[in-house]
Amino acid sequence: MDPAALGQFVPLILIFVIMWFLLIRPQQKKIKDHQKMVEALRRGDQVVTQGGIIGKVSKVKDNNEIEVEVAEGVRLRVVKSTVAQVLSKTEPAEG
């Protein structure tokens, strides 16, 4: 391969490197942070789902679900990964 042909690939490589640092890496970090947030959910946390429902976690189930209380006595089964934000965390129980 002659140097001129190799020189044509340098801009493509630079574009890929820039795309990696500006787009791909931050997205991977965001996904990783979301997974940590979902794994840390526990009873009493106030959450917002991707659908905009605000409620308090009343039960964390093993099969990738949580139960969210949206009103007195009204509970919804929600897939953990649809939690968009934790508004307030509960303090861990001592003992």
Automatic annotation (TrEMBL):
Recorded topology in the membrane: Single-pass membrane protein
Record Pfam families: YajC
Predominant place of localization: membrane
Compartments it resides in: Cell membrane
InterPro entries: Preprotein_translocase_YajC (IPR003849)
GO cellular component: plasma membrane
TM segment ranges: 6-24
UniProt keywords, alphabetically: Cell membrane, Membrane, Protein transport, Translocation, Transmembrane, Transmembrane helix, Transport
A GO BP entry: protein transport
Family recorded in the similarity comment: Belongs to the YajC family.
Subunit structure: Part of the SecDF-YidC-YajC translocase complex. The SecDF-YidC-YajC translocase forms a supercomplex with SecYEG, called the holo-translocon (HTL).
Function: The SecYEG-SecDF-YajC-YidC holo-translocon (HTL) protein secretase/insertase is a supercomplex required for protein secretion, insertion of proteins into membranes, and assembly of membrane protein complexes. While the SecYEG complex is essential for assembly of a number of proteins and complexes, the SecDF-YajC-YidC subcomplex facilitates these functions.
Name of the protein described by the UniProt record: Sec translocon accessory complex subunit YajC
Source organism per UniProt: Ponticoccus litoralis
Designated gene of the protein: yajC
